Amino acid sequence: MSAKYIFVTGGVVSGLGKGIATASLGRLLKSRGYRVALQKFDPYINIDPGKMSPLQHGEVFVTDDGAQTDLNVGHYERFVDENLSVDSNVTTGKIYWNVLNNERRGEYGGDTVQVIPHITSEIKSFIYKLGKSGNSDIVITEIGGTVGDIESQPFLEAIRQVSSEVGVENAIFIHVTLVPFISGSSELKTKPTQHSVKELLSIGIQPQILICRSGLELADDLRAKISLFCNIRSEDVIPHLPADSLYEIPIMLENEGLAKSVCYHLGIEDRKPQLDDWKAMVESEKHPEKHVKVGLVGRYTALHDAYLSTAEALAHAGISNKVACDITWISTEDVDNDINCLADCDGILSIGGRGETSVDSYINIAKFCRENNKPYFGIGQGMFGAVLDTARNLAGIDDAGSSEYGPCTPVIECLVDAITGEKPISRTGLFPCKIIEGTKLFAIYDDELVYERHNCCYEINTAYRAELENAGLKMSAVSPDGHLTEAVELENHRFFIGVQFVPQYSSRPNRVHPLFEAFVAELAK
């Protein structure tokens, strides 16, 4: 069949969970046997979130093809269990960049370049690209921001045009809105939802389905009122109540009839959903056999979304091991003030981020775990902390450090293009890793060649490999040509592994990444 299109917008306030609703709908449609593609349109002018502060935007999610995307793309992948691409996240900046480059190349034939039709046509091209790929039955597009924002207007106009072009039987609008509880009068209020829908109607968009976020049940008379004033069927008013787990939300929305309504409006068969495995996974998460305490240490822990995929990967590992991973969020500043803040944790996950000013905190974290035989899992800067602890305190390499932070003995050096000599360069996306036999890493993967996502600009300087290995830090994974070190592990330790890559982005609730599974399994012993 020709692709169908679903557009998800949000109203009243931001932070209502459009991304989770979009991801949940993707899971429900996939469970019915439909091929689903998802994408997020972000109204900000950055080309992508790769250079944005994690404290402003949360984590940057990296896809197989190296795209640096919005964290909601991570939700899409985890819920739908499909690897997405650069076309899954489009920003205003990317749209204008493309249009301006087209104009400079003369592709508009001397026309005056305007928001309509040129910007809106470029937006539509990304929608149709997924729809016409032949790989998807249904394309779900989430529009970032809140209806009424100036910056999102071109995206709303573009999706209005798509509906007109493909026909209302092939494109529907879902609006996520808020039904707040007013404590003074002890009642839920529908007026914000009415006004939000009115805002959409003013630009020519009639939503067919409303997902209503509320802290309380929506009574039938309240749903009927929303239905009447928003010009939709009462069964298309979908309550969205708080959930104990993110992964419970698809089941809750299924029970409220979301997918049934979508199938009705798109004119497709409402097949029986295959959700037994998903329900079993959720039940396992809700009923752990024990709890473990994981210290997640990084610079940006003040905003938990800065490490969203890492926290979710720990949750996946907990589900797999039938334990609950209780995360203690520890900032590198906390470590600098008192290293003993790590002592009460069963294990430590140390992870860096863009904009770090020093590696010293990570060295101290690794040293503490090494000396106290505490399970340690280092990612990125966490791996470099383990390497430099070994270099300074076991191998006797004076002034061992990272060239990123000034003059030192460069045990950590920037990546250099082997052909042009350009530096530093960035490795983003999926790359092969050769696992060394006889290592703990090999026992975990049970494979000699794996593919992992990367997002890095620095590496272990190969000139110091031998000294590090002689000091007890084994190179347990390398690039196939042997030039780049992909992972290290400390011999004679319960669990002490550092990796150059970013395994958290590949973990799924029903298919946990093996490194996270092994780490949590060690904590659960």
SSE layout and pairing:
Blueprint: E1 4-10, H1 18-30, E2 36-42, H2 54-57, E3 61-62, E4 68-69, H3 71-80, E5 89-91, H4 92-104, H5 115-131, E6 138-143, H6 153-166, E7 171-178, E8 181-182, E9 187-188, H7 191-201, E10 209-213, H8 220-230, E11 237-240, H9 249-255, H10 258-266, H11 276-286, E12 290-298, H12 308-321, E13 323-331, H13 332-337, E14 347-351, H14 360-371, E15 376-379, H15 381-393, E16 400-402, E17 409-414, E18 427-435, H16 440-445, E19 449-456, E20 458-460, H17 465-470, E21 473-478, E22 485-490, E23 496-499, H18 514-523
Parallel strand pairs: 1-6, 1-7, 2-5, 2-6, 7-10, 10-11, 12-13, 12-14, 14-15, 15-23, 16-17
Antiparallel strand pairs: 3-4, 8-9, 17-20, 18-19, 18-21, 21-22, 22-23
| Total of DSSP H or I helical runs spanning 4+ residues | 18
Q: Sum up the overall morphology in one term.
A: globular
Profile the largest sheet: 9 strands, mixed
The order of strands across the largest sheet is: 13-12-14-15-23-22-21-18-19
Provide the helix percentage: 25-40%
Based on helices, strands and strand pairing, what is the structural class? alpha/beta
Strand content: 15-25%
CA radius of gyration: 25 Å
Distance between the termini: 51 Å
Mean pLDDT: 94
How would you describe this protein?
The chain has 18 helices and 23 strands. It has 525 residues and is of the alpha/beta class. The strands form five sheets. The chain has a nine-stranded mixed sheet, with helices on both faces. Strands 5-2-6-1-7-10-11 form a seven-stranded parallel sheet, with helices on both faces. Strands 16-17-20 form a three-stranded mixed sheet, covered by helices on one side. Helix 8 (220-230) links the parallel strand 10 and strand 11 (237-240). The N and C termini lie far apart (51 Å).
